Amino acid sequence: MDETPRQRSGGRAARQAARLHRQLERTPFLTRTLKPFEVLDEEGLALIEHNADTILQEVGLEFRGDPAAVALLAAAGAHAQGERVRFPRGMCRQIVQATAPREFTQYARNPLNNVQIGGSATVFAPNYGSPFVLDLDRGRRYGTIEDFRNFVKLAYASPFMHHSGGTVCEPVDVPVNKRHLDMVYSHIRYSDKPFMGSVTAAERAGDTVAMARLVFGPDFVDQNAVVLSLINANSPLVWDATMVGAARAYAEANQATLMTPFILAGAMAPVTAAAVCAQTLAEALGGMTFVQLTRPGAPVVLGSFASSMSMQSGAPTFGTPEPALVLYAMAALARRLGVPFRSGGSLCASKLPDAQAAYESAATLQPTVLAGVNFVLHAAGWLEGGLTCGYEKFVMDADQCGMMAVFAKGMDLSENGQALEAILANEPGTHFLGSAHTLANFESAFYRSGIANYDSFEQLQEDGALDTAQRANRVWKQMLADYQEPPLDPAVDEALLAFIAERKASMPDALA
C-alpha cells in the first residue's frame, strides 16, 4: 500500500521531535539568569502588604469545619469567634518568616530528577484537575485512567516537563474514593520525576504519604519533601475542612504544600488587580501560618491563581493583561516574604488547540518566566479554562516551555558567545555560513521546535499541509510508542500494589 503524504509528514514530525530531544540537554529544572521583571516599586508592594494585613485583622478568614485549626491559630495569638479567625497585624508574616524555608528540594525516585523549589529555579509541571480530555482523533470526552497514564508518560518523556504533576486529568472510570490510589501509583510506576499528592480528603493525603514512605523509606520522608500538593483556598476568605485536613496531613509528615487562593476577579474578589493581590496575600498568609503552626519548617509555597472574567457571560478569561499584573506583583510579594512562589502556566479559554489557545497561553507563560515563578502548574495541556487536558495542546505547550528554557538562560557572554574572533576574521560583505564558529555551533545555536514547520510552501503542501495541531498529534503518538518505563524495584512495586489492594478492599466504591 502506498504511503500518503499525510503519513509521511507524521513520521517526519516525529523524527524532528526526536532530533530536538537529542539536541537539548535534559535538566531537572530551569535556572534563571534573568532578573525578575517588576511592575511595582517598594511603596506599591508595601501598600499591598498593608492592605493584606488590614484584611486579616479587620475581616479575618474562616476555617470551616475544623475546630482544631481554629484552636491552633487562637493559641498562637489570633482572635477566634466561631469559625472566623482574625489575625493581629503582622502576626502571620512573623510566623511564616520565622520557620518556612526560603527554598527546598523535592526529591524524586530518580535523584537526577530532584527539583529545587525556590530561589532562581523554575519547575514546569503539567496540567491539573481537568475532568475532560481532548485529541484530534476522538474529540472531547471524560478522562480515564488510561488517559491519566498517557499524560504521565508524556510528561516523563518530555525534556521540558520537570515534574510529573498531580491530577493531570480526572480518571472518571475509577471510583472517586479510590482513584487517588491509582493516580499516585501511576506517577510512581510510569515516571521517576517528582509528583504531587491527593488533596480531596485528609485520609487520601494520608494514603499518599504512606505510599511515598514505601518508595523512599519512612525516615527519609520525615526529613525530606518527596510530595508537593495543591491546597486551594475557597475564596473569598475561606479555608474549608477538606483543604485544611489535607494541608495538616502533609505538614505533619513534613511534606510540601502549595497554599493557593483560586480567584476569579469580579466574582471571588473585586475586579482590580491591586485588590486581588491584597486578598490573595491575605488568604495565602493565613494558610501558610496554619501549616507552620502545625509543623514549623514544613515546606510551603505561596500560590496565586487569578483570572479575569467576561463581564458579559461570567466565564473565566485567560491571557489577558490584568492577571499578568497580579502574577508579577505576587511573585515580588513572595520574594519579600521569603517563600517560593507558584503561579502561571499555559492558560487559555479556547476549547481547541488553535490560534486562540496559542496566543492566550503564550501571554500567560512569558510573564510566568519573566516574573520568576518557581513552580509552574498547568505548564502543558490546559484547555477550556482548565476543564479539558488536550493531547495536542500538551505537545504544543511543552514546545513553548522548551523555548522558555533557552530564554531563561539569558545571553551567553563567554568567549564563544561573544564570537569576537569570528567577526574579526571575517571580511566585510562575507557571510558567516562557512565560518569555523558557525560550523562549531550550528547544531545548538538556536532553539529548534519539534512541531513548527520551517519548510517552503511547496514542501509543506507535499507533506500534507498539516497545521500545528495535526503535527502535534503525530508527535504525542510517537512519544507514547517510544515510551520506555523507568525501572522500579520489584519489592517496592509489590508493596505498593499490596497497599492499594488493601485500601480498596477496606471501603465500598463511592462517588465522592
- Structure classification: alpha/beta
Task: Compute the number of strand runs.
Answer: 20
User: What is the alpha-carbon Rg in Å?
Assistant: 24 Å
Coarse shape: globular
Q: Span from first to last CA?
A: 51 Å
Uncertain segments: 1-10, 17-23
Helical fraction: 40-55%
Verbal overview:
It is a single chain. The protein is of the alpha/beta class. Helices cover 46% and strands 13% of the residues. The strands form five sheets. Strands 10, 11, 13, 14, 15, 16 and 17 form a seven-stranded mixed β-sheet that branches. The longest helix has 22 residues. The protein is globular, with a radius of gyration of 24 Å. The N terminus is likely disordered.
Summarize the structure in short.
By secondary structure, the chain is an alpha/beta fold.
SSE diagram, text form:
Blueprint: H1 5-23, E1 30-31, H2 42-58, E2 61-63, H3 67-75, E3 79-81, E4 84-86, H4 91-99, E5 104-106, E6 115-117, E7 121-124, E8 132-135, E9 139-142, H5 145-157, H6 179-190, E10 195-196, H7 202-216, H8 218-223, E11 227-233, E12 238-239, H9 241-252, E13 256-264, H10 273-294, E14 300-303, E15 305-309, E16 316-317, H11 321-337, E17 341-342, H12 355-371, E18 375-376, E19 382-383, E20 388-390, H13 391-408, H14 415-418, H15 420-424, H16 436-441, H17 457-462, H18 468-482, H19 490-505
Parallel strand pairs: 2-12, 7-18, 8-20, 10-11, 11-13, 13-14, 13-15, 14-17
Antiparallel strand pairs: 1-7, 2-4, 3-4, 5-6, 8-9, 15-16, 19-20
